[in-house]
Write a structure and sequence with these properties.
Distance between the termini: 63 Å
CATH superfamily of the largest domain: ANL, N-terminal domain
Radius of gyration: 22 Å
Bound molecules: zinc ion
CATH class of the largest domain: Alpha Beta
Number of domains: 2
Number of helices: 13
Strand order of the largest sheet: 4-3-5-6-7-8-9-13-12-11-10
Largest sheet: 11 strands, mixed
Structural class: alpha/beta
Shape: globular
Number of strands: 20
CATH architecture of the largest domain: 3-Layer(aba) Sandwich
Helix content: 25-40%
Strand content: 15-25%
CATH topology of the largest domain: Rossmann fold
Amino acid sequence: MKQATIDSEHQDADIEALFGSPFIQKMQFDKLKSLLLRLYAAKPFWKDRMDKAGLDPATMSSLDEFSSRMPVMDKAERRKITEECGGAVEMADRTIAVPIEDVVLMAATSGTTGEPTPYPHTTKDIEINSELFSRLARRAGIRRGDRIVHAFGLSMWLAGVPYVQFLQKSGACVLPVGAEAGSERILRTINQFRANVLFGTPSLIEHLIEKAPGIIGAPVSSLGIKTIICAGEPGAGIPEVREKIEQAYGAKLYDHGGSMGLSCDCEIYQGMHHFAEDYYYFELVNPETLEPLPFEHGARGLAVQTSLEHEGMLWVRETFGDIVEVLTEPCACGEAGFRYKVIGRVDDMLKVKGVMVYPAAIEGVIASFAPRVTGEFRIVLTEQPPRVTPPLKVKVEYGEDVPESELALLAKEIEASMRSRLKVSPEITWAKPFSLDRTVGKTQFFERNY
Ligand SMILES: [Zn+2]
């Protein structure tokens, strides 16, 4: 039995050492059962959903039974419920575990494709996520006395103000600059406040490398950043992007996913260690049929999440559209539990002659040709994805020092590399160095000409 005097950091380390064990599976099952029983009794939406699925929480006997019966909830279904209910607040009220009045913090996706998806937090959710962010900080070596420049978009995003709040439990000092402030303000703030930790999207972090000499009169290596935490895009998991960022800043780069994933210190990227098996049940399903897939080393599929204790941030077999590969064999770093690599987004998936390709994988191949290319590119679509009639057209920016006479040969090299690494035959066209639009925030993969 644990002593009540053990501090929370040690308790966390104890539970984290048990990840992947039958003990954790039993814990997940017990927590899930009690969650479903509560939802069944208190929320008509969930009672109906369980009744329709033929899932009785009182007699449910395994996690497999849950996975095989309970349907997956995706963005499209959330949108449909929002339309039925008449608004985002009504949708949240219907689908969270507690009365809407218990929500004290509401973040949301921007809703560029329709209604925003709300991320409602209760006081308990903030406590849980703060706990999980202190695990993240401990694993990334972030301590009291460190100063974190937070450069994710602040306004309404889950990774915005909520992250600023969660990160404070680590004991470090957070400077909420936000991506909206722009590169100049971000760079100046790092300098003026001697920040040594930087949170942001990989594309923003890369963008700062280009901007620093013009703004602070020195390369980013002069900033004294020791740790960079990237999220929101798969860039930090791409070896070439990772190497470029680590070398430019002289910092350690971690790939981070929500309140559950962080890469480790291994020299070669091993995916993100899931650091919250006691709070989430993580599954893989087939992205087209949504049927459960075996959870085994190297398996690839659509990630499906169930939160076991959250109230407002309640997910019951929810998918956010990430296609991942799971790695269950032990990692050299010694952390217990499984890892996952984000391969792409189900919305970005392209199908070229039946072969599934993700822009993040194309990014990796192109980045491996730097400095002969800048790394910036666009996939030119002439019809509604995922279908792409071959060849897959990719517009790539060549590097500043590449003479135009060498471009034809370089295009052939990139095409050959994509053929062998991704099993698709692209057609490379060229864009002048720094001619493609640099977005601060999310990477722009597509030029849509349809
Ligand atoms: Zn590891």
